[in-house]
Amino acid sequence: MAQDEIAVRPNRVFLTVGSRFDRNDFTGFEVQPTIRARWAIDARQTAWGAVSRSVRLPTRLDTDLQLIDPATKQVTLTGSEDFKAEEVIAYEAGYRIRPVPPLSLDVATFVNRYDRLRSAEATLAPQPMIVLENLLNARTSGIEVAGTAQLRPVWRLHASYSYLHKQLSFDPGSHDVFRGTVEGNDPPFLLSVQSWLDLPRHTALDALFRRVDTRPDPVVPAYSELDVRFGWVVRPRWDISVVGQNLLHPHHSELLPANAPQYDFRRGVFARSRWYF
Fold this sequence. Notes:
- With 277 residues, the chain is mainly beta.
- It has one helix at residues 60-64, and strands at 2-9, 13-24, 28-40, 45-56, 66-68, 75-78, 86-100, 103-123, 129-152, 155-170, 189-199, 203-212, 215-216, 219-220, 223-235, 238-245, 251-252, 265-266, 268-275.
- A hairpin with a 3-residue loop joins strand 1 and strand 2.
């Protein structure tokens, strides 16, 4: 790995150039370069941008996996020795401002181009089976907005909102059995609000509210949940907490449809003791 930061204008404009170099047994030599620019507009404002290339190297699951039907003893799903590294070219830009000392705001936007993503291809030769190949592509774009406010010396709030748009495509000749539903099942937006409140006698009350939009296919309904923690620092290296999770509903689904309640996340309360040494 090599990296260097160049001060284009001292204390104002910086350029960071670097790359990671890897060699592996699956795809050989891989280069993952990045270039980042940061502009300190003034003491309250900063703008930045970046372009990077990254890869996900194949694993033995991608190359050696074999699922066998116990009844027919035939292979129904197999990896591929020709599986290539998945690639993404990421474009990012952002802006941060502190309009007043207790408040900071961030906005970031991104466009990612994915190539050679894993697909599950149906084939008839030498027998009907599914083969893992690299015929799926994707393009994602979105925006993230966040703000932190120090409302009081003992009370801090942080809120964030993110939006994601995804487009999937396949190389000619693809016969992916899932048609990208697994890779494309992401919620379009996420919203969260966090609160940290320091109370007297070394106690604290923290809360996290989150809203997650509907997943499209398979459909997982949108949900809102709240986590609350009450903590007490008994000694400088020892604290005790009571935590309530998913307090707004008895249970909710996150990854699977609502007709699979055995996999739901449920309301819960637990106590925790931590000792640091």
